[in-house]
Amino acid sequence: MESFDLIVIGAGPGGYVCAFRASQLGLKVALIDKRSTLGGTCLNVGCIPSKALLHSSEHLVFARQHAAEHGIKLGSVDFDLAALMKRKDAVVNKLVGGVTQLAKGRKVMVFTGAAAFTSATTVSVTPLSGTAVEIAGKNIVIATGSVPVELPFLKFDGDTVVSSDDAIAFKEVPRRLVVVGGGVIGLELGSVWSRLGSEVTVVEFLPKIIATFDDDVVRSFTRILQKQGLKIEVGAKVTGFSKGVLTAERDGKPLEFPADKVLVAVGRRPFTDQLGLDKASVVLDEKKRVKVDARLRTSVPNIWAIGDVIAGPMLAHKAEEDGVAVAEWIAGKAGHINWDLVPGVVYTAPEVASVGLGEDAAKAQGLSIRIGKFNLAANGRAIAAGTTDGFVKIIADSKTDRILGAQILGANAGELISEIVTHMEYGGSAEDLGRTIHAHPTMSEALKEAGLAVSKSAIHAL
Ligand code: NAI
Q: Most CB atoms within 10 A, among 85, 239, 287, 425?
């Protein structure tokens, strides 16, 4: 049986990054995935293909609705869904191919097949066809990610009731798409299909969409999405789907939403099915996530777990950091992760991004805070670009002025938020942010102004 210093099960952003870092540190590494391509959900059916579709559909909206404002005459504008999907597939192929090349270059041995523990130090890999092999590892990392949650009364059928895996590859634009769940996936893919012509209704159980964001951000964001044509139904409890109608109720009153397709996006669950965790005595927590300690070690000392399969936000960049730290800990180095500063981004138009504590959460914790807000409508670059929807909000400690968090609603919010992450990593204050020189004219000046607004000294707002 071939033996490795480290076996990583799952080749998503958590797993492959962990494998690569471990090989950089001189370990002999095996990387196993049941998909024939590396990159996991994120590269194959998640983050990357959805972004390709979001970009393509945004270009379409620009061509149809905004080009004329810029004096660009395009005549009639149409699109070819098959070509759009082909581009998305090419984007995915380029990236997964790149990861394969990197794995080769780093001498990480890749196994394709379903992995299952046979003991705490051995794993079997069963390919789709052919015979299983067994390999041994001094250390094993579980990076098996997550799968969409299925509602018992709304089971996926791969055709009408679908998960995001299918909703990135519809062959036709559905006339009426009902999205169950006003979270990240629902709003990103809902936006894509709405831009391509579907009548989209988002049905959310809670009183607001993207419920982890502050109320003022969600209020503005909801209005913008509604202006774009999305119908948003909050506080609605879905009860079933039959004969092309999704049924729900609000305050005891029945609701009906006719649908050609139903995208169920109500969250994801850790994926540990058929992994043979019992053979290795790995313990799950009460939410069926792999239980780990502060160093991501499971109940078995040589077995570790990272990414979506453990507690914490189910985000690719968080999984990557988990992976790097675990590789470093296994190699005897000082791995480090700051789980308090994981940015979250919704890639709609405009984008929504946050890091650290929101205003509502800070108030709920009874913290004494000051808020600095700056509207993009007063930012020169936003006006020039025609992207004035939204604002930047900085939440700072009222005594120390230390930045506790930020929320941004606006174009490129996902890029802009990283500046705040960096400030926060270095313990920066709102004044630090306000006194940092920002290139003019850029959207990032809105961050500086919001930093200044914390002490009521924004220059371009009263
Ligand atoms: P989510 O947790 O973001 O949103 C699910 C939404 O569904 C919530 O608003 C929830 O209240 C609602 N919901 C739950 N049960 C419901 C029901 N029975 N009826 C109606 N609404 C219901 O989960 P989502 O969007 O499925 O995404 C899954 C994971 O993938 C998340 O952890 C997310 O962070 C991650 N992801 C991240 C992306 C990004 O960073 N841009 C993109 C896509 C996914």
A: 85
